């Protein structure tokens, strides 16, 4: 199969990413007791030998077995593991081994010698040449044709992970800039981006990053001319999506028991409270401290949301490099910047995920923050924000500007109360000075 056909299939076919484009109504499955695992990758599919040849035709020449850090346990990759023949399996034919004529020995000694004689097994049948037609090209052979600054440093034999810190200085620079761009995109644009082709998604960010660094001209040249290059590096970029979302959820898990005041409750009381909070997503609304009334006129203003977002996102590095990216949707007040919808929806989804872990029994049960388990919740929050902006843009501007002030230690601006037929009791207000 030609290289052009392989590259076209890699970048334009949905076959490699069919798991990502499936309907999002998938079951929540508890698969781990630790938050230290990579939390966001769907489980690998089981091996189907019948599909081996078809899948091999759809892949480009990437060295099999190389994956980026933290992607070996769980990955979005739809590739299959190589099946290695069982070297201990017996053949149908016996293997004759010439032996010397034995000396006469006693029956007891002969029996002991028989027990100690090693068993000779048949060697595995060599793989036919036809089966090697779709094997991947030796990485060392392809790397030598590119400038030294644009060559990938592969792991030592027996290792799987392509390490970012092992790459050339120029390639590291491009990778780190790409990762920073992906993080910004997740916070400001879309926290669950649709990924039709892994290599194509990563290549977009890699080229954009390489264009920012004149010293990485050879890396940029290879990205534009070698489609396999981005495919090999894709996991290094895409794993950061999983890591970022997982980090926000871990912050929420640590904070929600105190913020929702169920840390000292019995399991039965905790379960009852969690059910109430999850119903109609009531956890996004603050509660009046005096009347205990749910303040439905203040969506997304429960202190848990701003606290989780502040601790998970607004570290010193983020504030030093990204504050200029915040904008206002208010034409009358362009300087009253807001938290972006994606950041608010992801924070609310992380709070939801941390509460769900207590729903079954009242005792925490770790549920990985996977795309299949929580993307629907994220999309629901994004739609809520979009619908609210349609009928009450000024009021929503005040909510999001208030959230921005909370996470940046500014003075919060609260929306005015109102009434609505929907559960969110936020109505439009006039622009004010």
**How would you describe the shape?**
flat
Count of individual beta strands: 2
Q: Evaluate the radius of gyration.
A: 29 Å
Q: State the domain count.
A: 2
Percentage of residues in helical conformation: 40-55%
Give, in spatial order, the strands making up the sheet with the most strands.
1-2
Q: What is the number of helices?
A: 14
Strand content: under 5%
The helix-strand sequence is HHEHHEHHHHHHHHHH
- Mean pLDDT, to the nearest integer, reads 75
Largest sheet: 2 strands, parallel
| End-to-end Cα distance | 66 Å
Which regions contain 5 or more consecutive residues with pLDDT less than 50?
A: 9-100, 118-122, 124-138, 411-422
Label the structural class: mainly alpha
Biased composition (Basic and acidic residues): 42-55
Domain DUF6532: 178-386
Region (Disordered): 1-114
Pfam family, one: DUF6532
Question: Brief overview, please?
Answer:
Pfam families: DUF6532. This is DUF6532 domain-containing protein. The chain has 433 residues and is an all-alpha fold.
Describe the structure.
The protein folds into two domains: 3-79 and 126-240, no CATH class; 260-407, no CATH class. It has 433 residues and is mostly helical. Helix 8 crosses helix 10. It starts with a helix and ends in a 26-residue tail after the last helix. The longest helix has 33 residues, at 227-259. Helices cover 44% and strands 1% of the residues. Residues 178-386 form the DUF6532 domain. InterPro entries: DUF6532 (IPR045341). It comes from Mycena alexandri.
């Amino acid at each position: 199969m030609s290289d052009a056909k392989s590259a076209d299939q890699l970048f334009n076919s949905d076959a490699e990413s069919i798991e990502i484009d499936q309907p999002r109504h998938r079951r929540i499955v508890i698969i781990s007791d630790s938050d230290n695992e990579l939390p966001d990758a769907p489980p690998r599919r089981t091996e189907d030998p019948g599909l081996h040849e078809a899948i091999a035709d759809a892949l480009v020449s990437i060295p099999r077995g190389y994956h980026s850090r933290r992607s070996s346990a769980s990955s979005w990759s739809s590739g299959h593991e190589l099946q290695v023949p069982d070297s201990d399996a017996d053949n149908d034919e016996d293997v004759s081994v010439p032996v010397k004529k034995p000396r006469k020995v006693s029956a007891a000694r002969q029996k002991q010698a028989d027990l100690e004689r090693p068993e000779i097994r048949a060697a595995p049948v060599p793989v036919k040449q036809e089966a090697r037609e779709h094997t991947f090209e030796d990485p060392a052979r392809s790397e030598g044709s590119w400038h030294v600054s644009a060559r990938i440093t592969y792991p030592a034999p027996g290792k799987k992970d392509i390490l970012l810190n092992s790459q050339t200085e120029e390639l590291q620079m491009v990778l780190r800039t790409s990762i920073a761009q992906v993080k910004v995109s997740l916070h400001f644009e879309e926290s669950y981006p649709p990924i039709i082709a892994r290599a194509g998604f990563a290549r977009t960010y890699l080229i954009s990053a390489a264009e920012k660094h004149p010293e990485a001209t050879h890396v940029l040249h290879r990205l534009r001319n070698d489609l396999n290059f981005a495919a090999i590096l894709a996991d290094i970029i895409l794993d950061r999506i999983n890591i970022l979302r997982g980090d926000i959820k871990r912050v929420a898990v640590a904070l929600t028991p105190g913020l929702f005041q169920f840390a000292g409750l019995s399991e039965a009381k905790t379960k009852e409270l969690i059910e109430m909070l999850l119903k109609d997503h009531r956890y996004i609304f603050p509660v009046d401290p005096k009347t205990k009334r749910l303040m439905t006129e203040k969506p997304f203003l429960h202190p848990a949301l701003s606290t989780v977002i502040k601790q998970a996102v607004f570290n010193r590095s983020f504030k030093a490099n990204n504050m200029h990216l915040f904008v206002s949707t208010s034409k009358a007040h362009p300087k009253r910047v807001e938290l972006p919808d994606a950041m608010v929806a992801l924070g609310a989804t992380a709070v939801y995920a941390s509460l769900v872990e207590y729903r079954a029994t009242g005792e925490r049960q770790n549920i990985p923050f996977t795309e299949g388990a929580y993307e629907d919740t994220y999309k629901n929050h994004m739609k809520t924000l979009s619908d609210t902006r349609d009928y009450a843009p000024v009021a929503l501007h005040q909510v999001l500007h208030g959230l921005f002030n909370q996470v940046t230690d500014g003075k919060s601006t609260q929306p005015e109360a109102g009434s609505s037929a929907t559960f969110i009791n936020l109505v439009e207000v006039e622009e004010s000075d």
